Fold this sequence. Notes:
Elements: E1 6-10, H1 14-24, E2 31-35, H2 39-56, E3 60-62, H3 65-68, E4 73-76, H4 92-105, E5 114-117, H5 122-133, E6 140-142, H6 146-160, E7 167-168, E8 171-172, E9 180-181, E10 187-188, E11 191-192, H7 197-200, H8 204-222, H9 227-241, E12 246-254, E13 259-268, E14 271-275, H10 282-299
Bound molecules: ligand 6V0.
Keywords: NAD, Oxidoreductase
Active site: 175
GO biological process, one term: lactate metabolic process
Amino acid sequence: MVSHSRVAIVGAGAVGASLAYALMFKNICSEILIVDVSPDIVKAQVLDLADAASVSHTRIRGATPEEAGQADIIVITAGAKQRDGEPRTKLIERNYRVLKNVIGSMQPIRQDAVILMVSNPVDILTHIARKLSGLPANQVIGSGTYLDTTRLCVHLGEIFDVNPQSINAFVLGEHGDSQMIAWDAATIGGQPLTSFPEYQNIDKKAVSKIVSGKAMEIIRLKGATFYGIGACAADLVHTIVLNKKVIHPVSVYAEKYGVTLSMPAKVGWEGIQHVYDVPLSKEEEERLQASADALREIEQLY
Ligand code: 6V0
């Protein structure tokens, strides 16, 4: 058991439960608190997860929003999910109301808590969570393009026949349609991706479509995505709890763009410790600017 390790998960649907399941097997939390507007969902998920908790030896229980507000890390997965064919940005109105309710019900939120936003549209909701909670910008993070980046690295791993963990590449910008891949900055074994012969044969538009379109394909086939984001969110919590200072692509307030979007950031106890500026080609920089502009237009409404 370590400090900074009391984690509340607000929203106990498919994503919240997948996160709790992935997290409990890391054995790093003193306690996992499960919160939802539906008492039946809390009861059912806690009963079910407690069976797994007995194997992982992690304490898990239902909790009130007020208790969640006193946790070290508050992960918000509450809210509506995308329907088949619906862009993430369409969810804003529905999930803005949910988020307002969630933040309001957790007051007073601990001043040193870290909020990890997962509900979509995650970039805009991270911006809103920061405003509503009043916490410093570094303590309010969104899962952003972490999942898209893992999808990219898995895909590149197949092309380059190397373990995805040995690929250093990022999807940046919006967790959504305007996201972009930072091809010029990508490396394998310290060697620029662009210097590999295989790179010349990559259809970049097709890769981009595969990465950004994967969620919609899963939603079309089974109605929702949850294991991937559950594992990614658990990894982010792991990084915060152990102050690992791992650089993850997460949704943060990026001063350079004046908006909340995904950039590589060093993550630890106090949330974001540093945001890195990725060297981009002129075309990539324009695409990231366009993503920032698209998000800014929506951010200004909230
Ligand atoms: P779900 O299974 O419908 O669960 C949502 C849960 O939120 C339900 O149990 C609701 O009862 C609960 N809820 C609603 N309002 C409140 C409230 N005010 N307080 C507490 N709980 C509340 O949805 P699912 O778990 O599949 O998705 C949750 C969110 O995650 C959606 O917004 C998805 O779009 C989003 N995802 C984000 C991803 C990412 O990469 N960031 C990936 C997948 C899904």
